[in-house]
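Troubleshooting log. The previous structure file for this entry was overwritten by mistake, so regenerating from the original sequence record. Sequence copied from the archived sheet and checked twice against the printout by T.R.
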Amino acid sequence: MRFSWSRFGTWVVAFVVGAVYGVAGTIAQAYELGWFPLGLVLALIGVIALLVAVRLLTGDRWAALATGLGVMVATLVFSGAGPGGSVVVPQAPAGEFNPGILWTIIVPLAATVVIAWPDTLPRMGPVAPAASEED
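Regenerated output below.
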């Protein structure tokens, strides 16, 4: 595997897109519709779909890794307190469900699974055409 500027550019774009999804997911994951953590579910679906799409479209583990790192870096940056003490994602009150914990754990796990899955899936033998009934 040789270095090429186009691959490097793909990694940079993948990191930036991952960071955008990470910011959106970090902010949205706290939204709840009644008791259901709708923001967390939608954020996870979006990020997992993004990781799978990058891996399938580029065929490159490194691009998927760059995307996952972008999401994780954005989560790290936006989940803490800012320099002025402001907090973008408030912590859930004690004893209540905290979707931020799941967001912080599931994103790296999803990235690991997408990056680690094999390059080629096992192929079944040739599929025989379906027999047609002739009357």
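The first helix runs from residue 5 to 28. Archived copy saved in two places this time.
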